[in-house]
Amino acid sequence: MNAPNIRRISTHVGELTLVDAGSGTPLVLWPSLFSDHRLFTEVVRGLGHGWRTLCIDGPGFGRSDPPRGEVQADAYADAVLQVLDALGLERALVAGCSWGGQIAAHVAVKAPERVLGALIMNAPLGPSLGGHAFELLGTRWFGATEFWGNGVARSMFSPSSRRSQPERVRAFASAFRSFDRAAAATTVQTVLTRSPGLGEVLPRLAVPTTILMGAEDRLYPVERMRPLAERAPAARLEVVPSCGHLAPLEAPEAVVAALRRLAAEASCEFSS
Fold this sequence. Notes:
CATH architecture: 3-Layer(aba) Sandwich
CATH topology: Rossmann fold
Number of strands: 8
Number of domains: 1
Shape: globular
CATH class: Alpha Beta
Distance between the termini: 30 Å
Strand order of the largest sheet: 1-2-4-3-5-6-7-8
Helix content: 40-55%
Structural class: alpha/beta
C-alpha cells in the first residue's frame, strides 16, 4: 500500500484535513462525533490492497478547520463533493459512522451519479432537536481531556467491546487530548440538538446502500432505528452482534465485508 498522504483541501466549510492512502476503489470515510480519521484505522487495514481510502477529520475533531457555526450534514455533504473534485475523482464509495453516516446519506442523495454505494453506520436516523445537555456541557468543560474521553467511551462502546478490546477503548479516549474543546462543543451542539435527521433523505436513496446498526447500541437502539431505516426501501439493513455505537472500532470486519459487497455491486452495475 502507498504511504499515507495528509492533505488539506479547501471547501466552502473551510479546509478539511484527510488521510489519503492506497490506490484502487476510492472510498470516503467520515467519522462520528468525538473521533477523527483514526476511527477507521482497523477498517483501512482490513481492506488491504485495491482501495484508495480518504479518511476525513470532521470539523471540531482532528486537524480540519473548526466549524463555522451550526453547519448541518447536507452542507458537509457538499464539502465531500468538493473534496472529490479537488482530487479529480469522478465517483467513490461513501461511508460514515453516526454523524458521518448522516453525511454519507446526504452525499448519496445529492449526487447519486458520483456515488458507487453508501454505508451508513450507527447513524441517528431521526431528528435530534433537544436534550443531550450532559454531552454538550461535558464537552464544553472537559472536551479535550482523556477523562471525558473515557466517559464518552462508556456510552459508545458496548460492554462486550469494552471487555474484549480495551486497547481500542484506550486509544479512543486518549485521542480526546488532541481535540479543541470549543470547536468540538460547537459540532456536538449542532449534531445532538439541531439535526433534522434523515426522514426526508432515506426515501430518496437510490444508490446501493447498507444501513449498519449495532445490536448493543444504547444511543440509537435497533428497535428505535429500524422503523426509520425502513423508509429507505432499497437499502440493506444489517445488525452487528455485540456491537455498540462505533462499528469501525468494535466490528471492523463487518464494516469491511459491507464495503466489499457494495464495491462488488458497483462492479456488477458497470458490467451489466
